[in-house]
């Protein structure tokens, strides 16, 4: 992988070779994503950190949380800082994040001890897809139900967000449970110069980002994918991000309570 990175850095021809290799190998795409994301996740987190803290401080997370697409686990710091959260299940299918995610889980448990008035916390890691995780639980619907689901920088790369979100709504959330999402979304206006540029580079970006889509309207997708009781979202434009007019969607979707 170090050789691949050096090739991309120094050779235009090498870049084409890497793209061809990524096109034909899902395994290589997963490996590539594992290496690249672990290198840049800190920068992306720093760019959004202030807004993440503001957003999550008003959510009053508590009870059990299912973190979908945990990656290298950098998001765990925000979840474990919520003193009423008692259980976090991290589901991540890319095996190349395994060591980093396990280390992040350990750090999260250590950080938890510094949270004033925090309840006891359990953090587990499931190295599989959400579908495989639910299959592992079998027909025990209660075991799969959580108080909150977090999707942070993952809905951009899921092949079918509506189907995945409906699954999370129907099988993972308790009645009254909430889906929290933070995702980059398509630039505005639709059909504008930046939007058209992103559409043009999408085929290459799909390979480099292991399926990452640049122009998804994630907030709208969440709103219409399931019969939520309520969906609240807003767009945030990070300062100094170097990504002009590139918005990020922050939102909460609440599942209806039984009988409502």
CATH homology-level superfamily: Vaccinia Virus protein VP39
Task: Using the coordinates shown, work out and report the CATH topology.
Answer: Rossmann fold
What gap, in angstroms, lies between the N and C termini?
Answer: 53 Å
* CATH architectural grouping: 3-Layer(aba) Sandwich
**What string gives the helices and strands in order?**
HHHEHEHEHHEHEHHEE
Q: What strand order characterises the main sheet? A: 3-2-1-4-5-7-6
Question: Which CATH class is shown?
Answer: Alpha Beta
Q: Number of domains in the coordinates?
A: 1
Mean model confidence by pLDDT: 90
Shape: globular
Topology:
Elements: H1 2-10, H2 12-24, H3 26-57, E1 62-68, H4 76-80, E2 84-91, H5 98-112, E3 122-126, H6 130-137, H7 141-144, E4 146-152, H8 161-172, E5 173-184, H9 193-208, H10 218-225, E6 230-236, E7 248-254
Parallel strand pairs: 1-2, 1-4, 2-3, 4-5
Antiparallel strand pairs: 5-7, 6-7
Describe the structure.
By secondary structure, the chain is α/β, with parallel strands linked by helices. The protein has a single domain (about 45-255), classed as Vaccinia Virus protein VP39 (Rossmann fold). Helix content is about 45%, strand content about 20%. The protein is built from 10 helices and 7 strands. It has helices at about 1-10, 10-25, 25-55, 75-80, 100-110, 130-135, 140-145, 160-170, 195-210, 220-225, and strands at about 60-70, 85-90, 120-125, 145-150, 175-185, 230-235, 250-255. The protein has a 7-stranded mixed sheet, with helices on both faces. Strand 4, helix 8 and strand 5 (about 175-185) form a beta-alpha-beta unit. Helix 1 crosses helix 2 and helix 2 (about 10-25) crosses helix 3. The longest helix has about 30 residues, at about 25-55. It is globular, with a radius of gyration of 19 Å. The mean pLDDT is about 90.
């Amino acid at each position: 992988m170090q050789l691949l990175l050096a090739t991309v850095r120094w050779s235009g021809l090498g870049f084409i070779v890497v793209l061809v290799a990524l096109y034909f190998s899902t395994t290589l795409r997963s490996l590539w994503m594992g290496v690249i994301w672990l290198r840049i996740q800190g920068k992306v987190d720093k760019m959004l950190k202030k807004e993440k803290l503001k957003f999550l401080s008003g959510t009053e997370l508590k009870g059990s949380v299912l973190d979908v697409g945990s990656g290298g686990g950098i998001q765990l710091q925000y979840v474990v800082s919520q003193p009423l959260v008692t259980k976090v299940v991290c589901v991540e299918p890319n095996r190349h994040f395994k060591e980093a995610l396990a280390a992040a889980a350990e750090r999260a448990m250590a950080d938890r001890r510094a949270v004033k008035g925090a309840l006891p916390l359990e953090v587990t890691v499931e190295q599989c897809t959400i579908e495989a995780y639910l299959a592992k639980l079998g027909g025990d619907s209660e075991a799969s139900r959580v108080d909150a689901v977090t999707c942070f920088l993952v809905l951009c790369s899921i092949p079918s967000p509506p189907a995945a979100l409906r699954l999370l709504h129907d099988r993972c959330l308790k009645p009254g449970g909430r889906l929290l999402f933070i995702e980059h979304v398509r630039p505005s206006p639709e059909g504008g110069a930046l939007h058209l540029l992103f559409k043009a580079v999408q085929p290459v970006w799909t390979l480099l980002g292991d399926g990452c889509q640049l122009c998804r309207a994630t907030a709208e997708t969440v709103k219409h994918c399931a019969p939520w009781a309520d969906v609240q979202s807003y767009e945030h434009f990070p300062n100094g991000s170097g990504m002009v007019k590139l918005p990020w969607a922050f939102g909460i979707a609440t599942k209806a309570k039984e009988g409502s």
